[in-house]
Amino acid sequence: MSYTYDPKNNTLFHKKTELPLDGLEKNFIGACSKCNADVFSISYHTYHDQNAVAAKCTNCGQMYAILYDALWNWTGEHMIRYNCPNSANPEKESSHATENEYYECTNEELKTLQSIPKKKLETVFTPAEIDTLFAKAAGKKHVRQYLYRARKKFDDFNELFDIYLKI
Question: With contact defined as beta carbons under 8 Å apart, do 40 and 55 qualify?
């Protein structure tokens, strides 16, 4: 099943159908299937006789659409996928891309980065360097100076976490 989320408007879409917003409470939902960190709700949506909760991992940022029936019995869970940035539309709300924007791009460099918990990356690299690593791995526009600085830290990252980066 295909779910997408518009964080600017707190809108959850199933395929191309917008699910009406029911609330914006932040509640503990469970554990992330990618990194086992806490997942918290972002928004609540209702449609037909079902409820859907848009939720996000506090560590890796993975988003989920968690589905319940009318009595709030769990019925399923789906990852919310992000599209690769559209190169035809370079204007973004933020000057830095987030790693979540690249979850549907598939290459080995990007898969390696996505598998690393965000806390480990943040231990060695600055936010700008992390953004640049994801952009470079996805073949998108990036800041060369940040990439240069990040590459100088690859040996330290390897020594600390036994993970070798080649980007």
Answer: yes
